[in-house]
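Q: I have 207 residues here and want to know how they pack in 3D. Can you give me a structure?
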Amino acid sequence: MISVKKVKNQQGFNLMELLVIVSIIAMVNMVIFAGYPKFNRRIALKKTTAEIALAVRQAQSNSLAVKKFDKSVSNPFPDYGIHFEKDKNNFTIFADTNNSRTYGGASADCSDTECVEFFSINNSTQVGTVELCQKSSSCASYQKVDIVYPRGRTAVIAYVRGVDDSGGVYECSSCSYARIRVDSLGNLVPPKYLYVWFNGQISIKDN
């Protein structure tokens, strides 16, 4: 005869098992939430850098297409450029209506005569250093940098000017590219670098 012994199923957890599970969940949550601020800042930094790159490309496209600028009567088909300032949370696409190769406006509402579009950065990031660089990778930092693209040129060659801390203007005919550092406020994550080559190329790098 075969004897069969039935064992009652134990349902649920005992106190020790429950404590272990709760501890594991708490540890996982701590790891996730500890890394979340950096993850969030890293995403914001990538987004801002990509948006700046798109704005540079927009300025190029406006010039290449000889886009009409309705604000100007005397020069309705100007060159277009982009204006950066060191340690600022904004940048501007402008129309170089007076052929100065420099943006003269400063209004956040884009009401001045040369402003095409004013970009305000609101996600814990900002434009850090703005530099003009030669082929040898020798770079100089400036307070302001303007990159202007001549209209109607199939081969993109940019005019570029930097303004130093004392207000001196430097036009770099031997420079090959501008390097814009995009910072996360508080330096929670490493910065991104936008390389704007004056032959039209744009790239984003980690250094």
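Q: Anything worth noting?
A: The first strand starts at residue 79 and ends at 85. The CA atoms of residues 45 and 125 lie 6 Å apart.
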